Amino acid sequence: PIKRYYKFNAFCTSLSNKTTYYFAIFYILLSKTDKGLITTSVTQDLFDGWNIDSLDELYKVALDNTMKVLPFSVKNMGTFVSVDDFENVDSDMINQLGNLMHVLTNDTGVNGATCILYGNVLKDFATVHNVEEIAILPSSRHEVILLPQNGDVDYRHCYNILNELNKIVVSEIDVLSNNIYIYNAITDKLTMWSEE
């Protein structure tokens, strides 16, 4: 599987340049139990001993294995966070958006933000929700929040929610970004949102 410990900005840039693996830490999954994952990093010595010619090939093998061993899961945000968790964000807005927001992770909830790389996960999510755009709130390396853009989503509010989550719910080591990203299903591109 693939473990990601870098900030989402680098991740977004790498996706558009098809060089995602340069920011990756590859690891070997030794055990998967109800208590968590036991892993070890892929070292240069291990890599040199395998019959793999390039990082491109390693990335493909790792991603294929990750999708098999750690399948993705999408759940409604309401199962994870309540209005009481927020101090400085409008509770009516949280209730309204909470019904629309979904959490994308893997079946263990560990390093689940990697699921954004799984084939057509974002495109299929957009199709299911009948939208062309999805706001992505990369709150943690363990999950990302998906919000279908149905025409009335205020990205500034999404930005505020993400930053509030990152301050009070997500530990600093797990924060991916304080920026939100927009996935366009027509172009199959991910871009960072800006107020400009």
Counting DSSP E segments of at least 2 residues, the number of strands comes to: 9
Q: What's the alpha carbon Rg, rounded to whole Å?
A: 17 Å
Q: Count up the helices.
A: 6
Low-confidence stretches: 1-23
Helix-strand sequence: EHEEHHEHEHEEHEE
Measured between the Cα atoms of the first and last residue, the distance is 37 Å
Our estimate of the beta-strand percent is: 25-35%
General shape: globular
Would you tell me the structural class of the helices and strands? alpha+beta
Strand order in the largest sheet:
4-5-7-6-8-9
Query: What share of the residues lie within helices?
Result: 25-40%
* Biggest sheet statistics: 6 strands, antiparallel
**pLDDT average, as an integer?**
78
Q: How do the strands and helices of this protein lay out in sequence?
A:
Elements: E1 2-3, H1 8-17, E2 25-33, E3 36-41, H2 44-49, H3 55-69, E4 72-76, H4 91-100, E5 102-106, H5 121-128, E6 133-140, E7 143-149, H6 155-168, E8 181-184, E9 189-192
